[in-house]
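sorry to bug you again but im stuck and you know this stuff better than me. theres a chain ive been looking at and ive put its sequence and its fold in token form underneath. id like you to explain what the token line says about the fold, in plain words if possible. anything you notice is useful, everything is just below.
___
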Amino acid sequence: MMADKTMAKKVIEKYTRESDPEILESTYRYGVDYIAPIPYPAKEGIAEILRQSTHPKAKTANSDEFVDMSLVKKLEDSGFFRRVNQR
């Protein structure tokens, strides 16, 4: 989506069955603005899920134990996201 705007808009058009250029552009823009350029997991989201869980151990669980940031960090350090997020 980030690297090939034309292709992304064709995919949006195909799956939404929308052909209006303005709607396709705004849908594309929304997608580009919504997608995190570096997709680190949201620890806050995991913490919230644990708070809402009915499992007895969830209330005392540490959300950091459910997240491994090293994989995304390694890709970031390698320059992978800079290459794929070029617009």
